[in-house]
Design goal:
Radius of gyration: 24 Å
Distance between the termini: 36 Å
Strand content: 25-35%
Oligomer: single chain
Largest sheet: 10 strands, antiparallel
CATH class of the largest domain: Alpha Beta
Strand order of the largest sheet: 4-3-7-6-5-10-1-2-8-9
Number of strands: 31
Length: about 500
C-alpha cells in the first residue's frame, strides 16, 4: 500500500519545534519517503516531521522549507567533516551548524522515532511531486569551501584596482566574476561582461550583500568567494543535492549519461562520443618528438567520457565508502575542484569502485580515446584554435585568476565542441597507456599500450602550472604510476555496452 495513503494518529501530536496540532498535515499530505541514516548504519524510512530546517552559516542563518530540501550530511570528526552540509533541490549547498538537533520521524508501520542529529550520518529528503524552482535567472555565488548560494546580489557595483587605475563596474553589466587570492594576500578578480569584454585587477570591494532564494540576507566576504555568476539560468540538468552548476557551461552536443550508484546517488556525468577515425599527434609541425609522426586511429566503438575531471566531492565519496585516505587539497579547497595528489593506481581503483557501484564498466580512457575527445573534432593546436587567447583554459600564461597559482573548479572555462571541460589545462589527466615515445608502437584501433613492468604512464592535457605549449591537444607527458602531484588528476570513461 502506498506510504502516503496510510494515516497515523501521531501526525497530530504536539511536538515542540516541529509540526504542531492545527498546522501538521495528515500523513497523506506529509512528504513521505525521507531516509534517515544513523552513524551505526541503520536506515529509517518515513517523513521527517519538520516544516523547515535552519542552518547557521558564517554569513548568516538560512531557513529552508522541507519541500526544497534534498540532502543533509551531518558533521562527523571521524569522517573529517567539521560542519553540517545542507543541499537544496535547486543545487545550493550551505555549510554550518543545524540549529535544532532533535528530529521526529513518522515511520511506515512502525512507531514514531525521536533522533538526535549527533547520531545521524545523513538524510535524503523525499522530493516526489516537488520540482526545482525555475523562476527568473538568479545570481549565483560559489564559495571556496564548495558552498553555493543562489538568489539576488544586493551590492550594485564591484570596485577594481586595474593597471589603468580604479574602476567601478556595475553588476548589471557583468556575466561572471572569477575570484582568486594573490601572493600578497589580496584578492584578484576578472569580471567578464555581457559583451565579452573583461576587467581584471585587485578587487577593492570587501563584501557582498546577497538575498537568498528563501529570503535571508547574507554578508559574504569576497576573500572567501570563488566566483560569481550574474543572472544565471538554472542548472541545465538539475539533480537534487548535486552541485551540477558551472558558470561557463556549454551543453554537450551528444547524449549525456549519469548512472545511479548503489547508494542511490548519481555518479559523474559522462557524454557519449561516437566511433570515428582521426589523426592524433602533432598536426601543426611544432610539437614534441613523441607526437610525431601523426597516427591515423580508428575508434570502432562509441564510449562515454567524463564531462569534467573527477572532483574532490566525487573522489571523497569513494574514500568514505572504502575507508581510503583522502588526498591533500594543497590548501586550495575541495568540493568541485579536480581531485589532485592521486596516483595512476588511485585513479584505476576509483574506476573499479565506480564499476562495482553502477554495474557498468568504468576505466581510464586510452591515450587515443582521450585525444579524440579532447580535440572535439578540431585539428588546431588547441581545441578553440591555434592561439592561446584569453580565458580559455587554466595554465601559466592562459590569462585567468588561477593560472600559475592553483586549480580552478571544474567547468569554469568553456566546453569544447563535444561539451567537455578542462581538457586543456587545470590538471594533467592520467590515461590507461604505458608510455612510449614512438606512435608506431601504439595500436591503430586506439586501444591502450601495455608493457610488462610498465615504468611510466601517460598523462595528458597540461595543468595550471605549465605554459600554453603544454596544454595543446597533442601534448603528451608521463609519470610514475605511484606518484602523486598537485598538478595531476584524471577523467573517467564508461564503456558502452
Amino acid at each position: 500500500m502506498p506510504f502516503k495513503s496510510i494515516l497515523f494518529p501521531f501526525a497530530f501530536l504536539a511536538v515542540a519545534g516541529f509540526w504542531i496540532a492545527g498546522t501538521v498535515p495528515s500523513l497523506s499530505q506529509a512528504p513521505a519517503g525521507d531516509i534517515v541514516t544513523t552513524r551505526g548504519g541503520d536506515f529509517h524510512h518515513g517523513a521527517v516531521a519538520k516544516e523547515h530546517i535552519t542552518i547557521a552559516t558564517p554569513y548568516g542563518s538560512i531557513t529552508v522549507p522541507h519541500g526544497r530540501l534534498a540532502r543533509l550530511v551531518t558533521a562527523s570528526r571521524a569522517a573529517g567533516r567539521q560542519h553540517d552540509t545542507l543541499f537544496t533541490i535547486e543545487g545550493e549547498r550551505f555549510s554550518g551548524h543545524i540549529e535544532t538537533r532533535e528530529l521526529f520521524v513518522i515511520r511506515l508501520l512502525d512507531v514514531p522515532l525521536n533522533v538526535h542529529l549527533d547520531d545521524v550520518a545523513g538524510i535524503e529528503f523525499a522530493r516526489k511531486g516537488t520540482k526545482p524552482e525555475t523562476r527568473g535567472s538568479p545570481d549565483v555565488v560559489e564559495m571556496r569551501n564548495g558552498d553555493i548560494f543562489r538568489g539576488r546580489i544586493l551590492t550594485t557595483d564591484l570596485l577594481f584596482k586595474t593597471d589603468d587605475g580604479i574602476k567601478m563596474v556595475p553588476f548589471k553589466d557583468l556575466y561572471v566574476v572569477d575570484v582568486g587570492a594573490s601572493e600578497d594576500g589580496g584578492v584578484r578578480a576578472m569580471g567578464t561582461g555581457n559583451d565579452g569584454g573583461a576587467t581584471s585587477g585587485m578587487l577593492m570591494t570587501e563584501s557582498l550583500q546577497m538575498e537568498t532564494r528563501v529570503g535571508q540576507t547574507l554578508s559574504i566576504p569576497v576573500a572567501e568567494i570563488e566566483g560569481i555568476g550574474v543572472s544565471v539560468l538554472p542548472p541545465h540538468r538539475p539533480l537534487p543535492g548535486e552541485l551540477s552548476f558551472v558558470f561557463r557551461g556549454h551543453l554537450p552536443t551528444s547524449a549525456v549519461l549519469r548512472d545511479v550508484m548503489a547508494n542511490g546517488l548519481p555518479g559523474p556525468e559522462v557524454v557519449v562520443i561516437r566511433a570515428a577515425s582521426f589523426q592524433r599527434g602533432d598536426l601543426g609541425g611544432d610539437g614534441d618528438g613523441d607526437e610525431k609522426p601523426p597516427q591515423t586511429v580508428t575508434l570502432s566503438r562509441p564510449y562515454a567520457i567524463g564531462i569534467y575531471e573527477v572532483t574532490f566531492d566525487e573522489y571523497d565519496r569513494f574514500c568514505d565508502s572504502t575507508g581510503r585516505e583522502k588526498p591533500d587539497d594543497a590548501g586550495w579547497g575541495r568540493g568541485r575542484r579536480p581531485v589532485i595528489n592521486v596516483s595512476w593506481e588511485d585513479a584505476v581503483a576509483y574506476t573499479k569502485w565506480m564499476s562495482e557501484q553502477t554495474a557498468h564498466h568504468y576505466r581510464l580512457p586510452t591515450d587515443a580515446e582521450w585525444e579524440y575527445a579532447a580535440r572535439g573534432s578540431s585539428k588546431t593546436r588547441f581545441w578553440w584554435g591555434n592561439s592561446v587567447g584569453r580565458g580559455n583554459a587554466n595554465c601559466a600564461g592562459c590569462v585567468s585568476v588561477w593560472g600559475g597559482e592553483r586549480t580552478a573548479p571544474v567547468g569554469r572555462f568553456p566546453g569544447n565542441p563535444f561539451g567537455l571541460h578542462d581538457t586543456a589545462g587545470n590538471v594533467f589527466e592520467w590515461v590507461a597507456d604505458c608510455y612510449t615515445d614512438v606512435f608506431a608502437e601504439g595500436p591503430s584501433d586506439g586501444s591502450a599500450v601495455e608493457k610488462p613492468g610498465c615504468g611510466k604512464r601517460v598523462i595528458r592535457g597540461g595543468s595550471w602550472s605549465f605554459p600554453p605549449k603544454e596544454v595543446r591537444s597533442a601534448n603528451r607527458w608521463r609519470d610514475f604510476p605511484t606518484r602523486q602531484s598537485d598538478d595531476t588528476g584524471f577523467r573517467i570513461l564508461r564503456e558502452m555496452e
